[in-house]
Amino acid sequence: MARIAAFVFALTSSLTLLGTAATAQTGGYYSMTLASPAAEARPIVRGLLFACDGDACVAGEGPSRPAVVCASVARELGPLTAFSAGGTAFDADALAKCNARAKTETTQIVRR
After folding, report:
1. 30-34: strand order across its sheet
2. 3: left (phi > 0), else alpha (psi -120 to 50), else beta?
């Protein structure tokens, strides 16, 4: 019985992960445009798997607030020109707050 329960748990966990990746590829909850193309096709930021094609990236919904995800993406991947969560686009002020955390050459030198 314990083996069956372990198998069912492993199977449902795998299917959940596959579903999250599929959501990211087909549109996702978060959608953004980077100022320059992403260096990786599948970066992970705040535990979210992003699917990037050039400067466009998407990811499934995560537990953090959209503003936190936006700032984290800007910090890890660079400035954003657009960001939306659940179909709601950030306005210019919200996007500017995200980009205040963006990685730049200067911030990389300071962090070392």
Report:
1. 44-45, 48-53, 56-59, 30-34, 80-85, 88-89
2. alpha
Dump pLDDT digits (tens) for 16-32. Answer: 444 444 443 456 999 99
Neighbouring CB atoms inside 10 A of 58's CB total 20
The pairing of strands 56-59 and 30-34 is: antiparallel
Q: In the chain, which residue ranges form alpha helices assigned H by DSSP?
A: 2-25, 66-77, 92-99, 105-111
The model's pTM? 0.69
Q: For residue 18, count other CB atoms closer than 10 A to its CB.
A: 10
